[in-house]
Design goal:
This protein has a 6-stranded parallel beta sheet with strand order 2-1-3-4-5-6, sandwiched between helices. The radius of gyration is 15 Å and the shape is globular. It is built from 5 helices and 6 strands, in the order βαβαβαββαβα. About 30% of the residues lie in helices and about 15% in strands. The chain has helices at about 20-25, 45-55, 70-75, 135-145, 165-180, and strands at about 5-10, 30, 60-65, 85-90, 120-125, 145-150. By secondary structure, it is an alpha/beta fold. InterPro entries: AB_hydrolase_fold, RBBP9/YdeN.
């Protein structure tokens, strides 16, 4: 896959069994966007960190976001950044407006529901504890994203059995091809 990729882990970061970690190990050029405090993320600070990482990219990168980072991408898209990205794969978006949303995360509510100015795919599970399938579908519609429902997949992370997740990597490849045309 010939795309510049930035991965964006959710709250608490993605551990060694997470698909993002597996993908990064196979693709050493891909970079995880660092955050100062994974346990107590601040949206405004993280938006600035994401913008700095995009600025350091060779070309418009593809963002690969999980959970809380999906909301981060929507907030970044509404920021006053003059930078652009190629697209975004948004997996298991956490609902900042829901009671299940981690209280440690600051500044992510309300969910940004404006159309994203780049191609995107939202991947969601029917039994995710951080977002209902209806809300995930509503996010995809509001963001202008292709919606992919993968059934009972929990939070689509290592704990849910999604370590390597080749189906997700295939979706990323499709997005990469779409933006490379």
């Amino acid at each position: 896959m010939d795309c510049d990729v930035l991965t964006l882990a959710g709250i608490w970061n993605s551990g060694p069994s997470h698909w993002q970690t597996h993908w990064e190990q196979r693709n050493p050029k891909w970079k995880r966007v660092a955050h100062r405090d994974w346990n107590n993320p601040d949206c405004h600070e993280w938006v600035d960190e994401l913008d700095a990482a995009i600025a350091m990219s060779e070309g418009p990168p593809i963002l690969v976001a999980h959970s809380l980072a999906c909301g981060l991408v929507a907030h970044w898209a509404r920021s006053e950044s003059t930078l652009g990205i190629g697209g975004a794969l948004l997996v298991a978006p956490a609902d900042a407006d829901a009671s299940s949303f981690p209280s440690e995360a600051v500044g992510f509510a309300p969910m940004q529901l404006q159309k994203l100015p780049f191609p995107s795919i939202v991947v969601a599970s029917t039994n995710d504890p951080y977002v209902s399938i209806e809300r995930a579908r509503a996010f995809a519609q509001a963001w202008g994203s292709r919606f992919v429902e993968i059934g009972d997949a929990g939070h689509i992370n290592g704990e849910s059995g999604y370590g390597d997740w080749p189906e997700g990597e295939k979706l990323l490849g499709e997005l990469c091809e779409q933006v490379s045309v």
